[in-house]
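Objective 1.3, modelling of assemblies. Example input:
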Amino acid sequence: MSVPAVTLRRVFWRCLFLQAAWNRRGMQNLGFAYAIDPALRRLYADPGQRNEALRRHLATFNCHPYTAAAIVGGAIHHEELVAAGAEPPGAPLEYKQVLQGPLAAVGDAFFWSGLRPFFGAVAAVGTLLLGWPALVAALLLYNALHLWLRWTLFRAGYRAGDEVVLRLASLSLPAWAARLRDGGAVLAGVGAGILALVATGRLGLAAGALTVAAAAAGVAALWLRARLLPTAYAALLLGTAAGILAVRFPGAR
Amino acid sequence: MDYLVVAVVAGLAAVERKGFLQAMLARPVVLAPITGLALGDLPGGLLVGAPLELLWLGAVNMGASLPPNEALATVAISAGAVLAGRVLGTGVTPAIAALAIALVGGMATVGRSTDRAIEEWNVRLAARAEALLARGSPRAAVRTNLYGLLLPFAVSAVLAPAAAAIAAWVIPGVLHGLPAADAPLGFGWAALTGVAAAAAARAFRSQRGIGLFAGAAALTLAVGWLAGGIR
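Predicted structure (C-alpha coordinates):
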Protein backbone atom coordinates (compact mmCIF):
# COMPACT_ATOMS: atom_id res chain seq x y z
CA MET A 1 0.00 0.00 0.00
CA SER A 2 1.31 3.47 -0.86
CA VAL A 3 0.37 6.87 0.52
CA PRO A 4 -1.66 8.99 -1.97
CA ALA A 5 -0.08 12.14 -3.43
CA VAL A 6 -2.60 14.42 -1.71
CA THR A 7 -1.63 12.98 1.67
CA LEU A 8 2.07 13.43 0.88
CA ARG A 9 1.41 17.10 0.14
CA ARG A 10 -0.41 17.39 3.46
CA VAL A 11 2.51 15.81 5.28
CA PHE A 12 4.88 18.23 3.55
CA TRP A 13 2.74 21.18 4.67
CA ARG A 14 2.86 19.85 8.22
CA CYS A 15 6.67 19.54 7.99
CA LEU A 16 6.68 23.35 8.08
CA PHE A 17 5.50 23.08 11.73
CA LEU A 18 8.30 20.67 12.70
CA GLN A 19 9.65 22.94 15.44
CA ALA A 20 6.34 24.33 16.75
CA ALA A 21 6.75 22.60 20.11
CA TRP A 22 10.54 22.14 20.20
CA ASN A 23 11.30 20.90 23.70
CA ARG A 24 14.35 20.05 25.75
CA ARG A 25 13.40 16.38 26.15
CA GLY A 26 12.14 15.10 22.80
CA MET A 27 13.26 18.14 20.74
CA GLN A 28 11.32 17.90 17.42
CA ASN A 29 9.46 14.73 18.44
CA LEU A 30 6.01 16.33 18.62
CA GLY A 31 6.56 18.10 15.30
CA PHE A 32 7.64 14.86 13.63
CA ALA A 33 4.59 12.96 14.91
CA TYR A 34 2.32 15.83 13.82
CA ALA A 35 3.85 15.85 10.32
CA ILE A 36 3.72 12.12 9.64
CA ASP A 37 0.29 11.50 11.21
CA PRO A 38 -1.79 11.89 7.99
CA ALA A 39 0.37 9.22 6.32
CA LEU A 40 0.03 6.86 9.29
CA ARG A 41 -3.75 7.27 9.20
CA ARG A 42 -3.69 6.16 5.54
CA LEU A 43 -1.40 3.21 6.19
CA TYR A 44 -2.92 1.76 9.37
CA ALA A 45 -6.68 1.25 9.39
CA ASP A 46 -6.43 -0.48 12.76
CA PRO A 47 -6.36 2.17 15.56
CA GLY A 48 -4.07 0.03 17.70
CA GLN A 49 -1.47 -0.27 14.91
CA ARG A 50 -1.76 3.43 14.14
CA ASN A 51 -1.24 4.42 17.75
CA GLU A 52 1.76 2.11 17.97
CA ALA A 53 3.25 3.74 14.84
CA LEU A 54 2.58 7.20 16.23
CA ARG A 55 4.21 6.25 19.52
CA ARG A 56 7.47 5.33 17.78
CA HIS A 57 7.52 8.74 16.09
CA LEU A 58 7.22 10.48 19.46
CA ALA A 59 10.76 9.29 20.23
CA THR A 60 13.45 11.98 20.53
CA PHE A 61 14.28 13.52 17.17
CA ASN A 62 16.34 16.53 16.16
CA CYS A 63 17.51 17.62 12.74
CA HIS A 64 17.77 20.73 10.62
CA PRO A 65 14.19 21.88 9.92
CA TYR A 66 14.74 21.95 6.15
CA THR A 67 16.69 18.70 5.66
CA ALA A 68 14.38 16.92 8.12
CA ALA A 69 11.87 16.88 5.25
CA ALA A 70 13.99 14.13 3.66
CA ILE A 71 13.73 12.04 6.84
CA VAL A 72 9.97 12.54 7.09
CA GLY A 73 9.66 11.36 3.48
CA GLY A 74 11.98 8.40 4.14
CA ALA A 75 10.09 7.46 7.31
CA ILE A 76 6.87 7.25 5.26
CA HIS A 77 8.74 5.03 2.79
CA HIS A 78 9.69 2.68 5.64
CA GLU A 79 6.22 2.83 7.23
CA GLU A 80 4.78 1.61 3.91
CA LEU A 81 7.09 -1.38 4.09
CA VAL A 82 6.18 -1.99 7.75
CA ALA A 83 2.45 -1.79 6.90
CA ALA A 84 3.02 -4.31 4.08
CA GLY A 85 4.85 -6.65 6.47
CA ALA A 86 8.12 -6.30 4.56
CA GLU A 87 10.03 -4.69 7.44
CA PRO A 88 9.98 -4.93 11.24
CA PRO A 89 8.25 -2.04 13.12
CA GLY A 90 11.58 -0.72 14.38
CA ALA A 91 12.90 0.04 10.86
CA PRO A 92 11.51 3.62 10.55
CA LEU A 93 12.94 4.56 13.94
CA GLU A 94 16.34 3.11 13.03
CA TYR A 95 16.26 5.07 9.77
CA LYS A 96 15.55 8.30 11.63
CA GLN A 97 18.27 7.68 14.20
CA VAL A 98 20.90 6.95 11.57
CA LEU A 99 20.13 9.94 9.36
CA GLN A 100 19.21 12.76 11.75
CA GLY A 101 22.79 13.63 12.73
CA PRO A 102 24.35 13.69 9.24
CA LEU A 103 21.41 15.55 7.71
CA ALA A 104 21.45 18.09 10.56
CA ALA A 105 25.13 18.72 9.84
CA VAL A 106 24.44 19.16 6.11
CA GLY A 107 21.52 21.50 6.82
CA ASP A 108 23.43 23.61 9.33
CA ALA A 109 26.43 23.92 7.01
CA PHE A 110 24.51 24.65 3.82
CA PHE A 111 21.32 26.44 4.84
CA TRP A 112 22.14 28.15 8.16
CA SER A 113 25.81 28.97 7.48
CA GLY A 114 25.57 29.46 3.72
CA LEU A 115 22.34 30.03 1.86
CA ARG A 116 20.30 32.01 4.39
CA PRO A 117 23.03 34.40 5.56
CA PHE A 118 24.06 34.86 1.92
CA PHE A 119 20.53 35.94 1.02
CA GLY A 120 20.41 38.04 4.20
CA ALA A 121 23.50 39.87 2.98
CA VAL A 122 22.05 40.16 -0.54
CA ALA A 123 18.86 41.63 0.94
CA ALA A 124 20.79 44.05 3.18
CA VAL A 125 23.09 45.28 0.41
CA GLY A 126 20.16 45.44 -2.02
CA THR A 127 18.14 47.50 0.47
CA LEU A 128 21.03 49.92 1.00
CA LEU A 129 21.44 50.40 -2.75
CA LEU A 130 17.93 50.11 -4.21
CA GLY A 131 15.44 50.13 -1.32
CA TRP A 132 12.48 47.80 -0.77
CA PRO A 133 12.18 46.36 -4.32
CA ALA A 134 15.57 44.69 -3.92
CA LEU A 135 14.51 43.36 -0.52
CA VAL A 136 11.32 41.83 -1.93
CA ALA A 137 13.25 40.29 -4.85
CA ALA A 138 15.83 38.72 -2.52
CA LEU A 139 13.09 37.35 -0.27
CA LEU A 140 11.14 35.84 -3.16
CA LEU A 141 14.26 34.27 -4.64
CA TYR A 142 15.36 32.77 -1.32
CA ASN A 143 11.96 31.25 -0.67
CA ALA A 144 11.53 29.88 -4.18
CA LEU A 145 14.89 28.15 -3.77
CA HIS A 146 14.49 27.00 -0.19
CA LEU A 147 10.96 25.65 -0.62
CA TRP A 148 11.96 23.86 -3.83
CA LEU A 149 14.89 22.26 -2.00
CA ARG A 150 12.67 21.25 0.95
CA TRP A 151 10.13 19.66 -1.40
CA THR A 152 12.87 17.97 -3.44
CA LEU A 153 14.39 16.50 -0.28
CA PHE A 154 11.00 15.30 0.96
CA ARG A 155 10.21 13.64 -2.36
CA ALA A 156 13.70 12.11 -2.61
CA GLY A 157 13.36 10.68 0.90
CA TYR A 158 9.97 9.20 0.12
CA ARG A 159 11.01 7.68 -3.20
CA ALA A 160 14.52 6.57 -2.36
CA GLY A 161 14.34 5.65 1.35
CA ASP A 162 17.88 4.76 2.42
CA GLU A 163 19.22 5.91 -0.95
CA VAL A 164 18.34 9.52 -0.12
CA VAL A 165 21.92 9.98 1.09
CA LEU A 166 23.18 9.36 -2.45
CA ARG A 167 20.62 11.80 -3.87
CA LEU A 168 21.70 14.38 -1.32
CA ALA A 169 25.37 13.82 -2.14
CA SER A 170 24.61 14.47 -5.82
CA LEU A 171 23.49 18.02 -4.93
CA SER A 172 27.08 18.86 -3.80
CA LEU A 173 25.75 21.04 -0.98
CA PRO A 174 29.08 21.32 0.95
CA ALA A 175 30.82 22.72 -2.15
CA TRP A 176 27.98 25.20 -2.68
CA ALA A 177 28.13 26.17 0.98
CA ALA A 178 31.84 27.07 0.68
CA ARG A 179 31.11 29.24 -2.38
CA LEU A 180 28.23 30.95 -0.59
CA ARG A 181 30.41 31.69 2.45
CA ASP A 182 33.06 33.31 0.24
CA GLY A 183 30.37 35.24 -1.63
CA GLY A 184 28.84 36.31 1.67
CA ALA A 185 32.17 37.70 2.93
CA VAL A 186 32.41 39.73 -0.29
CA LEU A 187 28.85 41.03 0.20
CA ALA A 188 29.68 42.01 3.79
CA GLY A 189 32.63 44.01 2.44
CA VAL A 190 30.39 45.67 -0.15
CA GLY A 191 27.96 46.47 2.66
CA ALA A 192 30.77 48.05 4.73
CA GLY A 193 31.79 50.20 1.75
CA ILE A 194 28.22 51.35 1.08
CA LEU A 195 27.62 52.15 4.76
CA ALA A 196 30.82 54.23 4.82
CA LEU A 197 29.69 56.11 1.71
CA VAL A 198 26.25 56.68 3.24
CA ALA A 199 27.84 58.02 6.46
CA THR A 200 30.08 60.31 4.38
CA GLY A 201 27.06 61.64 2.53
CA ARG A 202 25.19 62.35 5.76
CA LEU A 203 27.87 63.66 8.12
CA GLY A 204 31.04 64.21 6.13
CA LEU A 205 34.30 62.43 5.49
CA ALA A 206 35.06 61.92 9.19
CA ALA A 207 31.91 59.79 9.61
CA GLY A 208 32.83 57.67 6.59
CA ALA A 209 36.33 57.18 7.93
CA LEU A 210 34.86 56.26 11.32
CA THR A 211 32.68 53.59 9.70
CA VAL A 212 35.71 52.07 7.98
CA ALA A 213 37.75 52.21 11.20
CA ALA A 214 34.89 50.59 13.16
CA ALA A 215 34.63 47.84 10.54
CA ALA A 216 38.38 47.16 10.79
CA ALA A 217 38.31 47.20 14.60
CA GLY A 218 35.19 45.02 14.54
CA VAL A 219 36.91 42.44 12.34
CA ALA A 220 39.87 42.34 14.73
CA ALA A 221 37.70 42.09 17.86
CA LEU A 222 35.26 39.51 16.50
CA TRP A 223 38.02 37.31 15.04
CA LEU A 224 39.53 37.37 18.53
CA ARG A 225 36.14 36.05 19.72
CA ALA A 226 34.84 39.22 21.37
CA ARG A 227 31.11 39.02 22.16
CA LEU A 228 28.91 40.65 19.56
CA LEU A 229 26.53 42.87 21.54
CA PRO A 230 29.18 44.36 23.87
CA THR A 231 31.35 45.05 20.78
CA ALA A 232 28.42 46.81 19.11
CA TYR A 233 27.73 48.88 22.25
CA ALA A 234 31.42 49.81 22.51
CA ALA A 235 31.34 50.98 18.87
CA LEU A 236 28.22 53.04 19.56
CA LEU A 237 29.82 54.67 22.60
CA LEU A 238 33.23 55.33 21.04
CA GLY A 239 31.62 56.51 17.80
CA THR A 240 29.46 58.99 19.71
CA ALA A 241 32.54 60.21 21.61
CA ALA A 242 34.34 60.66 18.28
CA GLY A 243 31.26 62.53 17.03
CA ILE A 244 31.44 64.94 19.97
CA LEU A 245 35.05 65.69 19.03
CA ALA A 246 34.16 66.05 15.36
CA VAL A 247 31.39 68.52 16.21
CA ARG A 248 33.64 70.48 18.56
CA PHE A 249 36.42 70.64 15.97
CA PRO A 250 34.47 71.03 12.75
CA GLY A 251 37.63 71.32 10.68
CA ALA A 252 38.03 67.55 11.15
CA ARG A 253 34.81 66.93 9.20
CA MET B 1 -3.51 50.94 18.66
CA ASP B 2 0.15 51.29 17.61
CA TYR B 3 1.27 49.02 20.43
CA LEU B 4 -1.33 46.43 19.49
CA VAL B 5 0.09 46.43 15.96
CA VAL B 6 3.60 46.03 17.37
CA ALA B 7 2.38 43.14 19.55
CA VAL B 8 0.87 41.30 16.58
CA VAL B 9 3.94 41.82 14.38
CA ALA B 10 6.26 40.65 17.17
CA GLY B 11 4.07 37.64 17.97
CA LEU B 12 3.85 36.50 14.35
CA ALA B 13 7.60 36.99 13.92
CA ALA B 14 8.26 34.81 16.97
CA VAL B 15 6.13 32.05 15.43
CA GLU B 16 7.73 32.30 11.99
CA ARG B 17 11.24 32.47 13.39
CA LYS B 18 11.26 28.94 14.76
CA GLY B 19 7.88 27.23 14.98
CA PHE B 20 6.52 27.64 11.47
CA LEU B 21 8.01 28.08 7.99
CA GLN B 22 11.34 29.86 8.66
CA ALA B 23 11.22 31.78 5.41
CA MET B 24 13.35 34.76 6.50
CA LEU B 25 10.26 36.81 7.38
CA ALA B 26 11.53 37.19 10.95
CA ARG B 27 15.03 38.26 9.87
CA PRO B 28 15.85 41.90 10.73
CA VAL B 29 16.18 43.00 7.10
CA VAL B 30 12.56 41.98 6.47
CA LEU B 31 11.04 42.43 9.91
CA ALA B 32 12.18 46.03 10.51
CA PRO B 33 10.57 47.30 7.26
CA ILE B 34 7.41 45.29 8.05
CA THR B 35 7.29 46.93 11.49
CA GLY B 36 7.93 50.34 9.94
CA LEU B 37 5.24 49.75 7.31
CA ALA B 38 2.74 48.61 9.94
CA LEU B 39 3.38 51.83 11.87
CA GLY B 40 3.29 54.02 8.75
CA ASP B 41 7.04 54.61 8.32
CA LEU B 42 8.56 52.20 5.81
CA PRO B 43 11.71 54.33 5.23
CA GLY B 44 12.37 54.29 8.98
CA GLY B 45 12.16 50.49 9.02
CA LEU B 46 14.44 50.24 6.00
CA LEU B 47 17.03 52.50 7.65
CA VAL B 48 17.47 50.17 10.64
CA GLY B 49 16.75 46.84 8.91
CA ALA B 50 19.86 46.42 6.78
CA PRO B 51 22.44 47.23 9.51
CA LEU B 52 20.59 45.01 12.01
CA GLU B 53 20.60 42.14 9.49
CA LEU B 54 24.37 42.48 9.05
CA LEU B 55 24.85 42.69 12.83
CA TRP B 56 22.87 39.50 13.52
CA LEU B 57 23.64 37.56 10.34
CA GLY B 58 25.27 34.84 12.44
CA ALA B 59 22.29 34.47 14.79
CA VAL B 60 21.15 31.01 13.75
CA ASN B 61 19.63 28.15 15.70
CA MET B 62 22.04 25.22 15.24
CA GLY B 63 21.23 21.95 16.96
CA ALA B 64 20.05 22.59 20.51
CA SER B 65 21.99 25.88 20.84
CA LEU B 66 20.08 29.14 21.16
CA PRO B 67 21.20 32.35 19.45
CA PRO B 68 20.21 35.85 20.62
CA ASN B 69 16.59 36.55 19.72
CA GLU B 70 17.24 39.01 16.91
CA ALA B 71 13.57 39.12 15.89
CA LEU B 72 12.34 40.36 19.27
CA ALA B 73 15.11 42.97 19.41
CA THR B 74 14.42 44.08 15.83
CA VAL B 75 10.73 44.75 16.48
CA ALA B 76 11.53 46.58 19.72
CA ILE B 77 14.26 48.72 18.09
CA SER B 78 12.40 49.54 14.87
CA ALA B 79 9.05 50.20 16.58
CA GLY B 80 10.71 52.30 19.28
CA ALA B 81 12.62 54.30 16.65
CA VAL B 82 9.56 54.85 14.45
CA LEU B 83 7.37 55.94 17.37
CA ALA B 84 10.10 58.24 18.75
CA GLY B 85 10.62 59.72 15.28
CA ARG B 86 6.91 60.40 15.08
CA VAL B 87 6.94 62.25 18.43
CA LEU B 88 9.92 64.32 17.32
CA GLY B 89 8.42 64.95 13.88
CA THR B 90 11.64 63.92 12.15
CA GLY B 91 10.98 60.32 11.20
CA VAL B 92 13.72 57.81 12.03
CA THR B 93 17.15 59.45 11.94
CA PRO B 94 20.54 57.78 12.59
CA ALA B 95 20.58 59.43 16.04
CA ILE B 96 17.19 57.96 16.91
CA ALA B 97 18.23 54.54 15.60
CA ALA B 98 21.43 54.68 17.67
CA LEU B 99 19.50 55.51 20.84
CA ALA B 100 16.92 52.81 20.13
CA ILE B 101 19.65 50.18 19.87
CA ALA B 102 21.36 51.50 22.99
CA LEU B 103 18.11 51.31 24.95
CA VAL B 104 16.48 48.09 23.78
CA GLY B 105 19.12 46.15 21.80
CA GLY B 106 19.53 44.01 24.91
CA MET B 107 16.11 42.49 24.17
CA ALA B 108 18.03 40.02 22.00
CA THR B 109 19.58 38.58 25.16
CA VAL B 110 16.31 38.73 27.11
CA GLY B 111 14.67 36.90 24.22
CA ARG B 112 17.26 34.13 24.34
CA SER B 113 16.41 33.56 28.02
CA THR B 114 12.69 33.42 27.31
CA ASP B 115 13.32 31.05 24.38
CA ARG B 116 15.12 28.70 26.75
CA ALA B 117 12.26 28.89 29.25
CA ILE B 118 9.74 28.14 26.49
CA GLU B 119 11.71 25.05 25.44
CA GLU B 120 11.58 23.84 29.04
CA TRP B 121 7.85 24.57 29.22
CA ASN B 122 7.26 22.61 25.99
CA VAL B 123 8.42 19.43 27.75
CA ARG B 124 4.97 19.52 29.37
CA LEU B 125 3.36 19.55 25.93
CA ALA B 126 5.35 16.46 24.94
CA ALA B 127 4.26 14.70 28.13
CA ARG B 128 0.65 15.74 27.48
CA ALA B 129 0.83 14.33 23.93
CA GLU B 130 2.14 11.00 25.25
CA ALA B 131 -0.64 10.87 27.85
CA LEU B 132 -3.30 11.63 25.24
CA LEU B 133 -1.95 8.89 22.97
CA ALA B 134 -1.94 6.43 25.86
CA ARG B 135 -5.60 7.33 26.45
CA GLY B 136 -6.36 6.53 22.80
CA SER B 137 -6.68 10.09 21.44
CA PRO B 138 -4.09 10.25 18.63
CA ARG B 139 -5.59 13.30 16.90
CA ALA B 140 -5.54 15.33 20.10
CA ALA B 141 -2.01 14.06 20.80
CA VAL B 142 -0.54 15.33 17.52
CA ARG B 143 -2.52 18.57 17.69
CA THR B 144 -0.62 19.37 20.88
CA ASN B 145 2.27 20.34 18.61
CA LEU B 146 0.40 23.46 17.49
CA TYR B 147 -0.11 24.65 21.07
CA GLY B 148 3.64 25.19 21.13
CA LEU B 149 3.12 28.25 18.90
CA LEU B 150 1.08 30.11 21.51
CA LEU B 151 3.69 30.85 24.15
CA PRO B 152 6.36 32.33 21.80
CA PHE B 153 3.62 34.51 20.29
CA ALA B 154 2.42 35.70 23.69
CA VAL B 155 5.87 36.36 25.15
CA SER B 156 7.02 38.43 22.16
CA ALA B 157 3.67 40.20 21.93
CA VAL B 158 4.18 41.44 25.49
CA LEU B 159 7.93 42.15 25.53
CA ALA B 160 8.30 43.94 22.17
CA PRO B 161 5.66 46.66 22.73
CA ALA B 162 6.89 47.18 26.30
CA ALA B 163 10.46 47.72 25.10
CA ALA B 164 9.29 49.90 22.19
CA ALA B 165 7.29 52.03 24.64
CA ILE B 166 10.41 52.63 26.74
CA ALA B 167 12.37 53.70 23.63
CA ALA B 168 9.52 55.88 22.36
CA TRP B 169 9.31 57.62 25.76
CA VAL B 170 13.04 58.07 26.50
CA ILE B 171 14.39 59.02 23.05
CA PRO B 172 12.30 62.19 22.51
CA GLY B 173 13.20 63.30 26.03
CA VAL B 174 16.91 62.86 25.37
CA LEU B 175 16.89 64.61 21.99
CA HIS B 176 14.65 67.44 23.24
CA GLY B 177 16.88 67.94 26.27
CA LEU B 178 20.15 67.58 24.37
CA PRO B 179 19.56 68.71 20.78
CA ALA B 180 23.33 68.93 20.26
CA ALA B 181 23.52 65.15 20.73
CA ASP B 182 21.99 64.55 17.31
CA ALA B 183 25.19 64.77 15.25
CA PRO B 184 27.44 62.83 17.69
CA LEU B 185 24.84 60.06 17.88
CA GLY B 186 24.88 60.00 14.07
CA PHE B 187 28.59 59.23 14.33
CA GLY B 188 27.78 56.53 16.88
CA TRP B 189 25.34 54.99 14.40
CA ALA B 190 28.01 55.12 11.66
CA ALA B 191 30.47 53.25 13.91
CA LEU B 192 27.84 50.67 14.80
CA THR B 193 27.08 50.01 11.14
CA GLY B 194 30.80 49.42 10.55
CA VAL B 195 30.88 46.80 13.30
CA ALA B 196 27.67 45.29 11.88
CA ALA B 197 29.40 44.76 8.52
CA ALA B 198 32.36 43.17 10.32
CA ALA B 199 29.97 40.88 12.22
CA ALA B 200 28.44 39.83 8.91
CA ALA B 201 31.85 38.92 7.51
CA ARG B 202 32.59 36.94 10.67
CA ALA B 203 29.25 35.11 10.44
CA PHE B 204 30.25 33.42 7.17
CA ARG B 205 33.35 31.80 8.71
CA SER B 206 35.04 31.78 5.33
CA GLN B 207 38.72 30.84 5.45
CA ARG B 208 39.47 33.78 3.15
CA GLY B 209 36.86 35.95 4.89
CA ILE B 210 39.06 38.83 6.07
CA GLY B 211 40.77 39.25 2.70
CA LEU B 212 37.53 39.06 0.72
CA PHE B 213 35.80 41.46 3.12
CA ALA B 214 38.60 44.03 3.03
CA GLY B 215 39.05 43.79 -0.74
CA ALA B 216 35.33 44.17 -1.44
CA ALA B 217 35.04 47.11 0.98
CA ALA B 218 38.02 48.90 -0.61
CA LEU B 219 36.69 48.32 -4.13
CA THR B 220 33.21 49.55 -3.18
CA LEU B 221 34.66 52.70 -1.61
CA ALA B 222 36.78 53.37 -4.69
CA VAL B 223 33.84 52.87 -7.05
CA GLY B 224 31.56 54.93 -4.79
CA TRP B 225 33.92 57.86 -4.61
CA LEU B 226 34.53 57.77 -8.36
CA ALA B 227 30.78 57.77 -8.90
CA GLY B 228 30.27 60.69 -6.52
CA GLY B 229 29.14 58.81 -3.39
CA ILE B 230 25.74 57.70 -2.19
CA ARG B 231 23.30 60.17 -0.68
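The two ends of chain A are 76 Å apart (CA to CA).
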